[in-house]
Amino acid sequence: MKLKYLPNKIKDSWHRNIAVPLITRLIHFFISLGKRNRKSYKPRTLIILRFDAIGDYVLFRNFLELIRNSEKYKGYHITLCGNLAWKSIAETFDKEFVDEFIWINFDKLYKEHSYRYEALKLMADKEGYEVLISSTAARNYYKEDAFVRAITAQEKIGYESRVWENMIASHKQISDKYYNRLISVADYDEFEFYLNQKFFRSLFGSENYMPKRTHFKPISYQLKFSTPDQYAIIAPGAGAWFRRWSTSNFAKISDYLFEKYGIHSVIVGSKADKELANQIMEEAKNKNCFTDLTGVSSLTDLVFLLQKSKITIANESSATHFAVAVDTPVICISNGNHFGRFNPYPEEIAPYCQTVYPPEITEKLEDKRELIRLYAAGSRLNINKIEPQTVVQAIEYLFQKLENSPR
Predict the structure, then answer these.
(1) Model pLDDT for residues 244-261, shown as the tens digit of each residue
(2) Together in a domain, 246 and 321
(3) What range defines the domain where residue 67 resides?
């Protein structure tokens, strides 16, 4: 089986480690020729770069209101340049804080060199901004920093970044020079939401409005499909295979919720998660307790589906962050990947979020600093060492908590 996938792995490694760096250098060279004599900036304009994944954006997006209403940037024309993956969420919930959106397709950015050239040239050709903010703590030389270099701005502000995440020391030495100001970040991870707080507290000082947790403001919205009266959200997908709990385990949890509480399961995810949904429904004993919305529901739909659900059972993925933001009880099933930065959620931010881990982490939960040292940069622990009974216990704990202290 390993030999079968070896050619693709070699091809991907060559593409990312040789082709992308080489092509990026050539692209920057040709773009720089056209920018050599250009130093004009449009006053009172601000561009914000956020190129990370959907869940990361959920942990950032409430700071847009802070930027819009800050004394420093009040009245500025604000442009958000972001990841196409979360376009629907930003344009639905955050448009009052942004004057202009620019979307970058990051699947194509790495796979199609012509698209990388077009995207970088598009940004290089725009009239200069007064201020550029790139607040991602885990900067990437070929993502955020490549665009910071291409964009003309009088002042460029970013995070210091760490060399052990998405940046090697030699690249950091080069790209640090793209910025006028870098805000320091701790060697050990803080939870991502707190990293965002730290950045903007350093940028603005004391502000009347500093987000204390993530949330979605209520808006008028009509789902285009029906749902059961009582349901749980099941989100079996994740960005990497080693972060996905087995479909047979999800099936057992669905059976448990239906048999004990009469709660149906609504399975959500992208088209890529359709096969996972099929396997869960096939492996469950109760075949009629499912609604499969994989590949059908949008991210905006997910916000409203979660608001009405009794509980969410999800891998450590964007569904967990959405559930917390709409104040829905959620069980996050995690192998400890990026421990400390994205999991576990702090109690004060998410009192109804329970994260379950493999035994290697559960046995050391009192020593958070050691777990950060071991797994902040990534984890390949076997997520399927988490037994269904552990998730059942977490469900019972949350239901009891809700009963004793209703929201």
Answers:
(1) 999 999 999 999 999 999
(2) yes
(3) 39-204
